[in-house]
Specification:
Elements (H helix, E strand, L loop, with lengths): L1 E4 L5 H10 L4 E4 L13 E4 L6 H6 L5 E4 L9 H6 L3 E3 L6 H16 L2 H9 L16 E5 L3 H12 L3 E6 L10 E4 L3 H4 L5 E4 L13 H6 L5 E4 L8 H9 L5 E4 L19 E3 L10 H18 L15
Parallel strand pairs: 1-2, 1-3, 3-4, 4-5, 6-7, 6-9, 7-8, 9-10, 10-11, 11-12
Helix pairs in contact: 4-6
Length: 314
Amino acid sequence: MKVLFTFEITNDQKMRLENKFRDVTFQYNKKGDTTDVESVEILVTYSSEVDSSLLERAKKLKWIMTASAGVEKMPLLEIAERNITLTNVRGIHKTPMAESVLAHILALRRSLPSIYSSKESKEWSRPDDSTELMGSTALILGPGSIGSEIGRLLQAFGVKTIGCNRSGRISESMDKTIVFRDLMLELPKADYVISVLPSTPETRGLLTREHFSAMKETAVFMNFGRGDLFNETFLINALKNNEIGQAVLDVFEVEPLPLENELWTLENCVISPHVSGLSSKYVERALIIFEKNLELWIESNVNLENLINLFDGY
């Protein structure tokens, strides 16, 4: 059995794998290098590296472990037709992403941008717009592992949390859970509207112009899921017309965000270059999932953790 990594891991991590799985042959390529994919049964890579041409070359491929959470850009139907197993690293982003969301909220509510700016200009100026999280309400779109962790942290600050998903299934760290069709009822109550939704047929274009109009004029809208959740024109108009207070965006319809995109020019919009999930522990956590699944694969090839439904896309 041969396993190919198309991103670099540390020598200690290589040694651990090789000592634990002595009957497995491991090959470690640099990022994006799919040399020798023709001979591998298992491919450990990022989702952006897998396309139709790679699948055409990888005749022996049986399992793809993507070190990404999102798989929407992968050729899922072709993977299904080949009967290739696909797993991801769902869950490893929850800590850095939840901390990123909380950091942005605290920065805005405690006026940190103004404080930093005053320091740069050597101006002793006290902001007059600082407020508290205590007693506010957050509406979290996608209260899965990441959304629930965001909810847990916010509840510690006295924030009421409302989860929103397609099924209405009760989620951890949510005071209340609603379904997508009830969004319009809850949006006017939310001080923070936070999306960590994946890209699926049900979530693409989920938010409309009417949804932004229904938000509080002081609401902070945050998108840390996928950029196809809404048409960016709707958000730009809402920000320009002061229909909402602020936006914090980590994902976009087109990435990198084009220089001509009007979002760059809006003072009430924070641009984050898709970095909320970054962490020095990223690969370490991904390998924990991979090792568990490799043990299962060797034993029976069934019941793998984070198995992707190739037709639902998650």
